[in-house]
Amino acid sequence: MSKKAVVLLSGGLDSATVLAQARAADYECYALAFDYGQRHRAELVAAKRVAESLGAAEFKIINLDLSSIGGSALTDMNIAVPDAGASGIPVTYVPARNTVFLSIALGWAEVLQADDIFIGVNAVDYSGYPDCRPAFIEAFETLANVATKAGVEGHGMHIHTPLMKLSKSDIVNVGTKLGVDYAQTVSCYQANDDGEACGRCDSCYLRRQGFEQAGVADPTRYRKA
């Protein structure tokens, strides 16, 4: 019998790869996406496509309104999404986003009696986000095993980050071998409603660079100038 896992699925390149990896490892996958007030809501349509094509047992979208607190170019339309190349923690960082997402994934995992959660965070091409680092994941896993009935009863909750030490080109190569259709994914921070990418933001830059370095044709649909 397959093990159950909750997989955080944004609809982007990284999370699609992680879902494929979890399926390849014989997990019964429950894909979880969030409608959190992000400007690039086309990623939710992409997430549904990816979940279906990669055989998720269930796909769920949780509605949150992080735009009500703002603080990020992804949730506040008054803050412009910058072009690639800025240093430090970028304005596209959404305050405490991965902490919130993992907490809800943890709750669903308990309900499903799943001991495993997969998330596509990456410390190589991580764009300066503090909640994509190994130290954060380690701390959250410790918290998960203190804060839950499952943890107290000794089941042990595990946070899997199979992309943590991979470059974007490595991720593209892994996903390609696993049959991920990257044309279904949306990574752009300001993709339009049709899922067309801007080609200028940090996420677009890293994605395009990943395909180029992997020697794989980039299937991304870019907006016309």
UniProtKB/TrEMBL annotation:
Stated EC number for the protein is: 6.3.4.20
Q: Which UniProt keywords apply?
A: ATP-binding, Ligase, Metal-binding, Nucleotide-binding, Queuosine biosynthesis, Zinc
- From which residue to which does the signal peptide run? none
Enzyme class (EC, first level):
ligase
Cofactor binding, per record: Binds 1 zinc ion per subunit.
Q: Which reaction does it catalyse?
A: 7-carboxy-7-carbaguanine + NH4(+) + 2 ATP = 7-cyano-7-carbaguanine + 2 AMP + 2 diphosphate + 2 H(+)
Q: Which domain of life is it from?
A: Bacteria
Which parts of the sequence bind ATP? 9-19
What cofactor does its activity depend on? Zn(2+)
Query: Single GO molecular-function term?
Result: ligase activity
Which pathway does the database say it acts in? Purine metabolism; 7-cyano-7-deazaguanine biosynthesis
Q: Which Pfam families does UniProt cross-reference here?
A: QueC
InterPro entries in the cross-refs:
QueC (IPR018317), Rossmann-like_a/b/a_fold (IPR014729)
Residues annotated for Zn(2+) binding in this entry: 188, 198, 201, 204
Q: State whether keyword Transport applies.
A: no
User: So what does this one do?
Assistant: Catalyzes the ATP-dependent conversion of 7-carboxy-7-deazaguanine (CDG) to 7-cyano-7-deazaguanine (preQ(0)).
**Family to which the UniProt record says this protein belongs:** Belongs to the QueC family.
What name goes with this protein? Answer: 7-cyano-7-deazaguanine synthase
Annotated organism of origin: Zhongshania arctica
Q: According to the entry, what is the taxonomic lineage of the organism?
A: Bacteria, Pseudomonadati, Pseudomonadota, Gammaproteobacteria, Cellvibrionales
Encoding gene, per UniProt annotation: queC
